[in-house]
Design brief:
Elements lengths: L1 E4 L13 E8 L13 E8 L1 E6 L2 E4 L5 E4 L5 E6 L4 E8 L1 H7 L7 H9 L3 E2 L4 H18 L5 H22 L9 E2 L2 H12 L7 H7 L4 H12 L3 H18 L4 H7 L5 H12 L3 H4 L1
Parallel strand pairs: 1-2
Antiparallel strand pairs: 2-8, 3-6, 3-8, 4-5, 4-7, 5-10, 6-9
Helix pairs in contact: 2-4, 3-4, 8-9
């Protein structure tokens, strides 16, 4: 469940385990497109100069920052090539997170950051080294071939997630404004899209609802999110449909509840996004 590599670019895709751990170091900048995952992701920065864009918000990371990227969050790192980029990354199966803590839902930290619209945790003082130790011990346990190595790794993961959930629960206010930047109007639009996926979300409707010209809306949205309004809406609808199918909702009903009025168009879009038909994917 662990890899040490030079690049994350070939490790995006699907998670077939409960969790996966990477320790990555890039000596040169890697250009990445906007993308999203079907799992939750933690990024613990060790070194380098990187700006991480998550759902239109730009986070200017510092060493020992922890970025929480929930499933379906559209994101991308922009890396300054003047310094080596080193980080530890955890991919976490959302269902595993919700179930492994017993009465404690360890996915709470991702849920809260999504609700707050703020995805950064910035430890201070001794907490910085505490988190580094938690990540390193997890990596060491995963590398170990000694008795109980897998069980120890699970224990290390639980310690890390409990610490992170506690700190996110305490973090009631965003960090200083210098830590991030965003466009309030575009964030308002994406929040509206998420709450009205089954309704009319044409450019004309959105431009009227938010008192913006069509041209400005399309241009500014692409500038902030890296994709068009239409692409963003389609991705969010596909993610909603995939989540419903995962829960056991019949495919046709899932498509309708995600805002797809044309079933054949939904099937083509789903096949293009997931490489399988909805029934095969399920």
């Amino acid at each position: 469940m662990r890899n040490y590599a030079d690049s994350e670019s070939d490790k995006r895709g699907y998670l077939h385990e409960r969790f996966h751990f990477f320790h990555l170091r890039d000596s040169r900048a890697q250009e990445m497109d906007f993308h999203y995952h079907e799992f939750d992701k933690l990024v613990f920065l060790l070194g380098g100069k990187v700006t991480y864009i998550v759902e239109g918000k730009s986070y200017f990371l510092k060493p020992y920052d922890i970025l929480l990227v929930g499933r379906s969050m559209i994101h991308k790192p922009t890396i300054d090539p003047s310094a080596p980029y080193e980080r530890m990354i955890l991919w976490l199966d959302s269902d595993y997170l919700a179930s492994c803590g017993g009465s404690c839902d360890l996915s709470t930290c991702f849920r809260l950051t999504e609700e707050r619209g703020f995805h950064l945790c910035r430890p201070h003082g001794e907490d910085r080294l505490r988190y580094r130790g938690l990540f390193e011990r997890l990596g060491e346990a995963l590398d170990s071939e000694e008795f109980g190595g897998e069980l120890l790794a699970d224990t290390c993961l639980l310690q890390l997630l409990i610490a992170l959930n506690r700190d996110v629960l305490k973090q009631t206010e965003p960090l200083e404004e210098a830590a991030y930047r965003f466009d309030p109007k575009m964030e308002e639009i994406t929040r509206y899209i998420g709450e009205h996926l089954t309704e009319n979300l044409s450019i004309d409707h959105l431009s009227r609802a938010f008192y913006l010209s069509r041209y400005y809306l399309m241009h500014r949205f692409k500038e902030v999110y890296g994709i068009t309004v239409h692409q963003y809406i389609r991705q969010k609808r596909l993610l909603r449909a995939a989540e419903e199918i995962r829960r056991g909702t019949p495919v046709l009903k899932a498509a309708m509840e995600a805002g797809f009025n044309d079933y054949s168009a939904f099937l083509r879009a789903f096949q293009g996004a997931y490489g399988k038909s909805p029934r095969e994917w399920k």
